[in-house]
Amino acid sequence: MSDEADDPVETAQTRLARLVLVLRSQGVTDPAVLSAIEKTPRDLFTPDLFRDRAWEDSALPIACGQTISQPFIVGLMTQALTLEPRARVLEIGTGSGYQTAILSRLARLVYTVERYRTLMGEAEKRFATLGLTNVITRFGDGGDGWVEQAPFDRILVTAASSEEPDRLLKQLKPSGVLVAPVGKGPVQRLVRYAGDGKGEFTKEQLGEVRFVPMLDGVAKEL
Length: 222
Ligand code: SAH
Fold this sequence. Notes:
The protein is α/β, with parallel strands linked by helices. It contains six helices and nine strands, in the order ααββαβαβαββαβββ.
């Protein structure tokens, strides 16, 4: 009798392949994005308690009362960014670092900001484990963006803000793209802002999402 549990490597690969199929059937069709997801072991980013659920297409709890995003949403947002290999990307809300790791495989440099020191530290260890050398981390309030490194080709916000991301749009190149969940309450709109090269941005709605809120300042607790 062959038992999948006897071969954890095979099991993880099979589960990952199944997850990729699910994402493709839901509209994440960009081969580069799917390949990045396929190369990123999500179980490295989930807490021990939820490790056996790492390959499910669902958001899961992580430390500090935050969440690791649902793989479909990670795929959708990454695809919406239309990344080019030379891109410098700013990400707000590192969390587990899962989305960061996906971005790092598709862009030249990823700058990521997190307001919990604990989450930042854990994510940094994971980037080292995976040998991701193009991720630059910062413990701070992502609402401020990262002025010293602006302007960015792409900006991805993974915490929900009730206001339009006007401050972050100022740190985007004129032809850049910013993707963010916008809205109050548990359900928000996922919005894609695309620059026309002359200082104007067109807005496209990508559907409803559920993100934890973007909060002001850094967390006082660890
Ligand atoms: N992309 C993450 C999802 C993390 S959830 C992942 O794949 O795991 C959103 C994260 O945004 C949380 O970790 C939260 O602490 C962080 N966050 C919320 N407000 C923030 C702010 N103002 N600056 C930086 N990070 C913030």
